[in-house]
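Re: beginner question about structure tokens

> Can someone show what the tokenized structure looks like for a real chain? I only ever see the sequence side.

Sure, here's an example I had lying around. Input first:
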Amino acid sequence: MLLRIGLCLVFGYLFGCFSTGYFVGKKNNVDIRKYGSGNIGTTNALRTLGAKAGAITLIGDVIKAVVAILLVRFLLFPGVENLELLLMYTGLGVVVGHNYPFWLHFKGGKGMAATGGVMAALDPWIIPIGLPLFVISIALTRYVSVGSLVVAVLFPIWIAIRHPGDIHMLIIALVFMALAFFRHRANIKRLLNGTENKLGQRVKLDDKQ
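And the corresponding structure tokens:
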């Protein structure tokens, strides 16, 4: 079991290292790591390059998580015992790879699009709850970070409901949540100070790279 868990973590990590936002930025001759928050995730791509770039980044980061989990489910370990747990570890690897890609000196995104992809691939029934909750949270507050943190909290709650008594899966879900809060620590500080950027605010690009 430990070997399978290790393989799933590494497999997921390699998928997570596909940094969609970085490639979208390069396609537009912009290194988004040098603007805005410096992250390569959806929100910074949106603020730096606009809605189209943000949408492509979001879709790419969701898809890489979904593909990794589907490959483990149907190709690498189909039908094995504790498959759902292995899928959780695969997803965790994807998020860690997204947040800390080795080829970008471990400076990646905040992992929420990837986490959303993991949640959807693990249990599609979460989509009708998680997606509206995310959208409503942002609509009410105008803060993407608030929506992201709300979804992060939803994950362990959902696992506890759908897999009652499975402490191992609950612990991994709590790790997802902890990673989200850790990566959003600067956002949380700005939220408390009232200085967090609201949805729609753009980053000015200049000629200095």
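Each token stands for a local structural state, so reading them left to right follows the chain. The chain has a mean pLDDT of 94.
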